[in-house]
Design brief:
about 350 residues; Nucleotidyltransferase, domain 5; Dna Ligase, domain 1; 3 domains; six-stranded mixed beta sheet; 10 helices; globular; binds magnesium ion
């Protein structure tokens, strides 16, 4: 069986989390600060040229590995081991029930045969991993096993990028899983609390609904910050790269706010409220207690307020490094501004501690 580089395995230190996204790469290194606390040692980001990563597919390995090399250097880390994430759309996960007490070998055989029923492509094109969750809810003779499968070439592309940058990928996670564990650490939820996390990226927004640590709903919709960048390109005749930079710095003409930003915020709020409505109509759930926003596009000024207003649900940006000690080089104010964009990278970095 081919391993998804120990999707569920534990990692040995020192290991950095490396988030490879459409718009850029982000690196986070955490350390154990003792007494159950973590310390953010360093973090950094480097933008990617347009088209290097599209819909989670690596289109240009050289450009991406160059960016990884740069972000590694810029961060000042010395960790050569990295935890990488797969976009959720590229991974099929499935809970299956198997008889308890199988040997490791029997388990592998069973997993492969079960997997072939759920996976729409040939098994030899697939990286497969599994994790025994525990006893099955309804029968003590059975156990629950989580299957995860991804197209092997997609896993190999990411491993190759790390390698080309002089790094070794020892953990392969799923971005939504990494985000969830980082959120759980940073924001404690009351028992039974229904939490919705919106990760607003460049081209896609991923919604997850979490209850007591379990994900009960996942959905992706084609909406993201690129839309606003394109508006800026068109309105002011800038290159895409220039428009991206100015969107972040806010260095734009006076009519930007009224003509571009406000309509974008309206549109974003509409996307979120529609996604929530769809969640209510397609599941038995009828409320959400807390909304969190993460991803680069969550940094757009005014987004939290408009979404809180339209949904009437308490809304906040995720602060993934909440409660962590900060390493000497970390600038607190900048971290406060950008933290929400590092949710996935933070969750990946947490894999250092199993
Ligand atoms: N400070 C910022 N202000 C506004 N938008 C930002 C900021 N930082 C990043 N973004 C936007 O966030 C999007 C990228 O978010 P990210 O989470 O990296 O997405 P993905 O994982 O889809 O690449 C881009 O549209 C980018 O312009
Ligand atoms: Mg991303």
């Amino acid at each position: 069986m081919i391993n998804l580089a120990s999707l569920f395995g534990k990692a040995s230190p020192p290991l950095a989390g490396l988030d490879i996204s459409t718009s850029g790469v982000r690196l986070v290194e955490l350390a154990d600060a003792g007494k159950g606390e973590l310390r953010l040692e360093r973090y950094a980001a480097e933008p990617l040229p347009r088209g290097a990563v599209v819909d989670g597919n690596i289109e240009n390995i050289d450009q991406v590995s160059d960016a990884v090399r740069r972000v590694w250097k810029k961060s000042g880390t010395r960790a050569r081991l990295v935890a990488l994430g797969m976009p959720p759309a590229a991974v099929i996960t499935k809970k299956i029930i198997l008889p308890a007490g199988l040997s490791e070998d029997q388990l592998e055989v069973q997993v492969e045969s079960e997997a072939s029923q759920y996976i729409p492509f040939a098994l030899d094109e697939v990286s497969l991993d599994f994790d025994v969750i525990g006893a099955a809810p309804n029968s003590s003779e059975d156990m629950e096993v989580m299957l995860a499968a991804a197209r092997r070439e997609k896993v190999e592309d990411r491993v190759a990028i790390a390698e080309a940058a002089g790094l070794t990928a020892t953990v392969m996670d799923i971005e939504s899983y990494a985000a969830r564990s980082a959120l759980e650490r940073a924001a404690s939820a009351k028992p039974g609390q229904i939490t919705a996390l919106f990760q607003l990226g460049a081209q896609a927004t991923h919604m997850s609904v979490l209850i007591d640590g379990d994900s009960v709903y996942e959905r992706e919709q084609p909406f993201g910050g690129t839309q606003l960048t394109q508006d800026i390109v068109r309105a002011y005749g800038l290159s895409f790269e220039e428009a991206e930079a100015r969107k972040k710095s806010g260095d734009l003409p006076e009519n930007y706010r009224a003509d571009l930003l406000t309509p974008f915020l309206e549109n974003a709020a509409l996307e979120v409220t529609r996604a929530i409505q769809f969640f209510y109509t397609s599941t038995p759930y009828t409320r959400i207690d807390q909304l969190y926003l993460a991803g680069g596009c969550a940094l757009v000024p005014g987004l939290v307020d408009i979404i809180a207003g339209r949904t009437r649900i308490p809304t906040a940006q995720v602060t993934p490094f909440q409660g962590m000690q900060l390493g000497a080089g970390v600038r607190e104010q900048q971290l406060r501004q950008e933290g929400a964009a590092y949710l996935v990278a933070c969750g990946l970095a947490m894999r250092r501690f199993g």
